[in-house]
Write a structure and sequence with these properties.
heterodimer, A: Heat Shock Protein 90, B: Udp-n-acetylmuramoylalanyl-d-glutamate--2,6- Diaminopimelate Ligase, Chain: A, domain 1, 5-stranded mixed beta sheet, globular
Chain lengths: 141, 115
């Protein structure tokens, strides 16, 4: 992206749920090295991790691009999953379509998208059924 | 209270000391639902949970918890413990119930000073 001080790319594995969070951890560490404030790092880490988990649960993985810009962190999470049928409903806290095996691991409480919205400063969801979903979030520096 | 003071209290079984034993523990925090813990765990908390899987460590790291205390006799498997060591996350185990484990942390914070 134009004006980006640093661009990071991550493939989110579709097969290994236990590895979910590795991309977010790496971004967290890089932001820490760059001296970004702990409050901003926490917002980015939470928003991105929730997105990463969603990609594993619902979309068989995908690709994340993180741009570190002079005034913000921009995250683009792109998958080729089934798409979100009802975005408004998916944004409601407590609504989830996650299967039981995911719930038994402590997820699937319907907090993913609400958490992403809460911890980002802007969030946009572009989704097409049967084609995929792209979530773009920014966190101001 | 620092993590080191919690370690030296010997209240819980230490499985990994983490990479910063001098960091302050800000508050005990109890939650087993990782989705909630991810957004609500305060930075620097002593997180008491029975959810012992690899994702617990990711949430602990990303939410910046000071340590994870596995209650009710739960424990990480070898792979998760190895990951805790790699990532420098402090991990304790205890047979105590969640509330009692958190109360122990709270009481110790009162005795040693909050930070």
């Amino acid at each position: 992206m134009d004006g980006s001080l640093m661009t990071l790319h991550y493939d989110v594995s579709p097969t290994d749920f236990t590895r979910a969070g590795e991309a977010s951890s790496d971004v967290k560490n890089k932001l820490k090295q760059l001296g970004v404030s702990p409050q901003v790092i926490r917002k980015v880490a939470i928003a991105m991790y929730e997105g990463e988990i969603n990609m594993v649960i619902h979309a068989q993985g995908g690709h994340i691009t993180v741009d570190i810009l002079p005034t913000m962190i921009r995250m683009e999470l792109k998958d080729v999953g089934p798409g979100i049928e009802d975005v408004e409903r998916a944004m409601q806290a407590g609504y989830s379509t996650a299967p039981d095996n995911i719930r038994s691991l402590g997820f699937g409480a319907g907090m993913g998208l609400p958490n992403m919205k809460k911890y980002s400063d802007t969030m946009q969801i572009d989704t097409v059924l049967g084609v995929g979903t792209t979530v773009t979030m920014t966190v101001d520096l | 209270m620092t993590l080191n003071q919690l370690i030296r209290s010997d209240i819980f079984t230490l499985r990994n000391a983490g990479d910063d034993t001098e960091r302050a523990i800000t508050v005990p925090f109890c939650c087993d639902l990782l989705s909630i813990a991810m957004s609500r765990a305060p930075s620097g908390c002593a997180w008491v949970t029975v959810m012992a899987n690899m994702n617990t460590l990711a949430v602990a790291s990303l939410s910046d918890a000071a340590c994870v205390i596995l209650a009710e006799g739960t424990c990480f498997d070898d792979a998760a413990l190895a990951k805790a060591k790699t990532q420098g996350i402090a991990v304790f185990e205890t047979g105590l119930p969640v509330f009692e484990a958190a109360l122990k942390v709270h009481d110790l914070m009162g005795q040693t000073g909050q930070a």
